[in-house]
Every structure is written in C-alpha cells, then in structure tokens.
C-alpha cells in the first residue's frame, strides 16, 4: 500500500460497445468519458511516469485536467490507516443462542446441530464490557445487536433478562442504549412486539420472498412454510411503531421473483415505503451441502429490475454489492478486528457469522474468550494480528480493481473461506458499479 500511485485511485474502465473509456475517480467523485487516444496517454501518467509521454498539447490538456481536479493526489483521510486495529466503538453483537426454529436450506450456521445458549455470566460480562468501553471513550451511547448463530427470540426469557440488565446499567452510567436485532420474526407475537417496541430501535427481518419462495427457502424445523408467520410478525412490529428493514437471500429458486416481492411489500406491508436488502446466497454451510447456486447474471438483471420497481412503488432496494457512491475504508469490522461478536460458547469473533468452533473461518476469526474467573474477556493479540493481516486489501486482484474503494475486497470471511462465492461476488460488484457509473454519465448527456 506504500506504493500507491494515481492509478490506485483513478481508473480507466473500458465501456462496452462504445469505443470509449471511462475515467473513474470515486474518491474525487469524478466520472467522465475519455477517448482511447487520451486513455493511451493517461496510462503512463497515472502510473507516475508522465516523463515517458512525449510533450504535446493533448498531454498539457490532460495534465491540466488532472491537476485542476486534484486527481494526482489521494484525497485527505483516505491514506491506509493502520492505527485502528482491534479498537471498536462501543458496540457489540451478541449471538445469544445457536438454537433456531427454522431450517433455511442455505443456512450458513447449519442450525439444528448445536443447541448451545450463552450463560448469564457471559452475557452479563459482555454487557458490562461494552458499557465500560462507552464510559471510558466518553461516549453518551452504546449499541448491542442480537444477531447470528440462531434465533434470539427462541430464548425470549433470556433475551428479556439481558434487556432489563442493559437498561438498568445504562441508567446507572447515564448512557443511552441502542438495541438492534436480526430476526426471522416468526415468534414475534403481539406481546413480544409490544415488549420489543419498548426496547429496540432497529430490527431487521430475514424474509426471502413471496409465499412459494419463503416457504421453500425458509421452512421451520418441521418442514412447514413460514410466510404467514413472518408477515404476521412484521405486522405486529409495525403496530407498535417498529418498521423493520427486510433482508432477503436470493437463490436461483427465487431470483426471478425479486421485483414481484418488492411490489408485494409496497402494497401489503410497507404502504408508506420501506427498505429491502437483496443479498445473493453465500456458498457456505447448508448451501454448499445442498449444492445450491445463485446465477450472478440472473441476480444482477433481477436486482436492477427490482430496484426500478422499488423507485416506482416507494421501496428502497439495495444490497452490499451495489456500491456506487458508497466509498469506504473497510468493508466491515472484520477487516480490522474491530467487531466484538460474542458467541454462545463465550468466544469472541470478529465476524458475526462465526459463532461455533466448527464454523467455517472459526480458526481465524475467534480472537478472545470469556474468562470465567476474572469475569472479563481475554483478547489474544496474535489472533487480532492474523485477522488484520487477512483483512488487508489483497494486492491481487483488488489493488488495481476499479471497484476497490467501493468494495474494499467485500466480505472478509467470503474472501477467506468461500472462494467460489467470492469470484461470483467480484462479477456482480464490478458489473453493478459499472452500470451505475454509465447511468450517471448518461443522465448528464
Ligand atoms: S466478514 Fe462478512 S459475514 Fe462477517 S461480519 Fe463482515 S460482512 Fe458480515
Ligand atoms: S473483491 Fe473483487 S470487486 Fe472487490 S475490490 Fe477485490 S477484485 Fe474488485
């Protein structure tokens, strides 16, 4: 990374069909079409070898354009930052249990094999830790998200005990707690929703599609469909003022119904508008066992269609692969080991997907464990170093990729453990980004 040159933040992308190139500088918010002749001159200039280019009026014009837009300098604040490793904000993820009442056909956690629930000692110490961190950082708030492994509402009493303790301790320390949950929503009855309305500010519901898609992809542990229960759970949340965002996993089975699902949500669930994330299935866990697939081309076409429909019906349609305008330094907290995800076994992972010692990536992403004697968590600095080393943007193929500032190598665990998924991800990310850049350019024609 010390050898960054303009070519690492200014990219030349060949435009399909047209004989033009696109000069794309995401950190400078610039995208313009350039001729192939200008492109030939730009390649050595961006590589820091402008003296190799023969002097000409065209070279002067290009140098003037690059200088006036400050394209030969990396904008302030974007230099690679090595200082934040292992230091997170006052936020944690608690994976309360590996129990789940569903058996999704692609489940990364392969629920139904491990029924561990966190002990109260681990939960209490995790809560105390994040509160102490907020106090020490001089923050006024802290965040806890219940997510990963299994379904937190399966252990409702335990979840409620945690919430009571969080509120009490927040009050003692004069802090505001922000509680979030990722849930399958099937167990959110009216009383549960009322309780959640009093404690949770942010809820995401995993909900894959219209009835035939949801029932096929996300059956319960007895093989029964869950569409009716999920929609009821969402209605219950809406009635207490919680508007959840939806997270849908896309497989080849449901890929052609994405736009229909958006229309359905707008009409039946979120008449005042809502948010849905469509993520292509990760090729891991039960998805790998069941040899499921998501065709990247079909995913992209249907995602773009769903997005168009969303604009018409007031639904925001997004996904982590749709990165235009979302430049970032890291993809997630797993890059710098800044996430603190406490597993039911009392282990701490940098990735919310790793919740069991048998999970893909467990050998890398676990970096701390609960200490029953001292009542805290012992962090292994060597393990943190390994996570950070893996989290650095790989030279090949990412450093010269035009999507690098938008994508930042995408999901670190996919890069580490799901190679096939990662290759498909690159196709989707690059194509969606290119399509968004071309759409922006065409708007200004
Ligand atoms: S590594 Fe991937 S799955 Fe894990 S927290 Fe980051 S984005 Fe999520
Ligand atoms: S993961 Fe793929 S799309 Fe993302 S920066 Fe790397 S090469 Fe580019």
UniProtKB/TrEMBL annotation:
PROSITE patterns linked: MOAA_NIFB_PQQE, RADICAL_SAM
CDD domains the record matches: Radical_SAM
Signal peptide: none
InterPro entries linked: Aldolase_TIM, MoaA_NifB_PqqE_Fe-S-bd_CS, rSAM, rSAM_sf, Sulphatase_maturase_rSAM
GO molecular function: 4 iron, 4 sulfur cluster binding; metal ion binding; oxidoreductase activity
Domain spans labelled Radical SAM core: 86-316
Pfam families: Radical_SAM
Cofactor: [4Fe-4S] cluster
Keyword entries, A-Z: 4Fe-4S, Iron, Iron-sulfur, Metal-binding, S-adenosyl-L-methionine
Family: Belongs to the radical SAM superfamily. Anaerobic sulfatase-maturating enzyme family.
Protein name: Radical SAM domain protein
Species: candidate division WWE3 bacterium GW2011_GWF1_42_14
Top-level taxonomy: Bacteria, Katanobacteria
């Amino acid at each position: 990374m010390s050898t960054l040159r303009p070519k690492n933040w200014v990219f030349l992308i060949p435009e399909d069909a047209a004989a033009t190139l696109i000069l794309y500088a995401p950190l400078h918010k610039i995208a313009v079409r350039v001729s192939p002749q200008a492109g030939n001159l730009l390649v050595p200039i961006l590589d820091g070898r402008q003296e190799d280019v023969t002097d000409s009026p065209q070279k002067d014009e290009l140098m003037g354009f690059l200088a006036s837009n400050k394209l030969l300098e990396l904008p302030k604040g974007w230099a690679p930052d090595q200082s934040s490793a292992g230091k997170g904000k006052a936020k944690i993820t608690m994976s309360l249990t590996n129990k789940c009442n569903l058996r999704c056909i692609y489940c990364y956690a392969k629920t139904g094999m491990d029924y561990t629930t966190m002990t109260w000692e681990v939960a209490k110490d995790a809560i105390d830790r994040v509160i102490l961190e907020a106090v020490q950082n001089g923050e006024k708030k802290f965040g806890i998200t219940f997510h990963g492994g299994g379904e937190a509402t399966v252990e409702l009493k335990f979840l409620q005990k945690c919430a009571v303790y969080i509120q009490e301790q927040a009050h003692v320390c004069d802090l505001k707690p922000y509680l979030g949950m990722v849930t399958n929503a099937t167990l959110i009855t009216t009383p549960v929703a009322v309780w959640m309305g009093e404690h949770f500010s942010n809820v995401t519901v995993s909900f894959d599609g219209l009835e035939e898609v949801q029932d096929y992809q996300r059956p319960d542990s007895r093989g029964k469909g869950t569409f009716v229960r999920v929609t009821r759970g969402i209605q219950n949340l809406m009635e207490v003022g919680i508007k959840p965002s939806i997270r849908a996993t896309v497989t080849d089975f449901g890929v052609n119904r994405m736009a229909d699902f958006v229309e359905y949500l707008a009409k039946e669930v979120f008449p005042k508008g809502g948010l849905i994330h469509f993520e292509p299935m990760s090729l891991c866990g039960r998805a790998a066992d069941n040899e499921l697939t998501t065709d990247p081309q079909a995913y992209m076409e249907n995602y773009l269609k769903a997005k168009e429909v969303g604009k018409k019906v007031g639904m925001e349609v997004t996904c982590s692969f749709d990165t235009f305008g979302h430049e970032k330094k890291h993809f997630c907290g797993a890059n710098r080991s800044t996430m603190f995800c406490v597993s039911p076994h009392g282990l701490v992972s940098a990735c919310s997907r790793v919740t069991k010692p048998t999970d893909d990536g467990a050998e890398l992403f676990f970096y701390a464990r609960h200490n029953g004697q001292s009542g805290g968590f012992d962090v292994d600095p060597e393990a943190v170093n390994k996570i950070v080393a893996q989290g650095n943007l790989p030279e090949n193929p990412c450093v010269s990729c035009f999507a690098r500032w938008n994508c930042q190598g995408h999901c670190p665990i996919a890069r580490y453990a799901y190679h096939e998924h990662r290759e498909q991800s690159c196709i989707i990310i690059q194509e969606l980004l290119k399509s968004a850049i071309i759409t922006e350019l065409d708007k200004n024609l």
